[in-house]
Write a structure and sequence with these properties.
Arc Repressor Mutant, subunit A; alpha+beta; 15 helices; 370 residues; 14% strand; 2 domains; 14 strands; 6-stranded antiparallel β-sheet
């Protein structure tokens, strides 16, 4: 089998449910930076992403010395290009998987990380987004800001009280259901920085929050910074003030082991294509902002903070004390960024639909604990 066939075969093994790794020369360029010829020949003997094997079993399949296989696997796991769970190893999907762990571990040279970052910016911007259309459900769903239930949500009398707010819809509830937290650098903004295209809202240090089982798994891998509950809440509130959207799995079954991404529309691999091209990477929430004209002073804060540019002045589209706001429902994600940042508390989030997410993550896999 030729060299290019090994890379192609491994590419096919990284499929995650219906989401395959795009067959593109830029993707193969990334793989050739991550894995040399010896590496890729060994990885070929894994079955698929998420299927773990011990070094002993892999050595037997590959016909190599066990010590040599262990050395290769240990090196690749240290770089974040494969995963190690206990005494076993496994392939990772490209996203979510290699993309996150590679940049979280920072185990490669700076030169290689910059090369990979620039290539992945191209992959995420032009190659990967169209593939989201094949998924039945988007991967991410916004989680309403901290203290939303007490301060931001306006009860809709047309909907049953028991169906006003669900736990998976609130970032506060997700934090309350967990007792272990890890703060992480945002890989999307980190990639932008390495590619010399930094985020204008906030640096990558203000990143994501891992909760519960995922947080413990990351800590065991030496990744992230352990946080107290108070520190986790502070991270969430700082992200809100920066205009970032809390996004988590589009699922109702991951409340005790969830990764809360704090996303910007300029770099997030899911939110960016949603905001710029209408690609279904992020599911709309069940809420819609409602502006109280008696409290609104037309300060422009909501329009400037909205990641979807869904808030405008009504005609003549210029700031004026007599103007009202116009919210484009088709563009709005219902993320609550406008409401939490309104200095006059003039915006409330009202439940306008009751569309529940599936009980399982769209890709039906937990890459951090296969």
């Amino acid at each position: 089998m030729s060299e290019i066939d090994y890379y192609e075969e491994v590419r096919q093994k990284l499929r995650l449910g219906k989401l395959a790794v795009p067959k593109h020369e830029k993707v193969i360029e990334v793989f050739k930076i991550l894995w040399n010829k010896e590496d890729i020949r060994l990885l070929f003997h894994f079955d698929r992403a998420g299927k773990l094997l011990t070094a002993v079993k892999l050595a037997k399949r590959a016909g190599l010395e066990k010590s040599k296989v262990k050395e290769i696997l240990k090196r690749l796991a240290a770089k974040g290009t494969i995963i190690k769970v206990g005494n076993s190893y496994g392939l990772l999907p490209l996203v979510p998987g290699i993309f996150e762990l590679y940049f979280l571990t920072c185990g490669d040279t700076e030169e290689n990380m910059k090369k990979v970052a620039k290539l992945l910016r191209t992959v995420f911007d032009t190659i990967l987004p169209p593939m989201f259309f094949i998924l039945k459900n988007p991967l991410f769903r916004p989680k309403l800001p901290y203290e939303a239930k007490e301060k931001l949500i306006q009860i809709n009398k047309g909907i049953e009280t028991s169906k006003q707010v669900y736990p998976y819809e609130l970032v506060e509830e997700l934090i309350n259901r967990n007792d272990y937290f890890v703060g992480l650098r945002c890989q999307c903004r980190q990639v932008g920085e390495l590619a010399e295209e930094p985020c204008e809202k906030t640096p990558s240090e203000l990143g994501c929050l891992a909760c519960g089982l995922i947080a413990k798994q990351l800590t065991s891998m030496g990744i992230g910074k352990e946080l107290t509950k108070e520190e986790a809440i502070d991270l969430i509130k700082r992200a809100e003030k920066a205009g970032l959207v809390h996004c988590g799995a589009n699922s109702s079954g991951f409340e005790t082991h969830i990764l809360i991404c704090n996303c910007c529309e300029c770099h997030c691999g899911m939110l960016r294509p949603t905001a710029q091209h209408g690609v279904p990477g992020v599911q709309r929430s069940n809420f819609f902002p409602k502006i109280n004209p008696d409290l609104c002073v037309c300060c422009e804060t909501c329009a400037k903070k909205c990641p979807m540019t869904a808030i405008f002045h009504q005609w003549p589209f210029e700031a004026d004390s007599s103007d009202e706001r116009m919210i484009i429902l088709e563009k709005c994600l219902g993320c609550g960024v406008c409401a939490v940042n309104c200095p006059k508390n003039a915006i409330k989030m009202e439940r306008v639909r009751d569309e529940n997410p599936p009980k399982q993550f769209a890709l039906n896999i937990n890459i951090f604990n296969p």
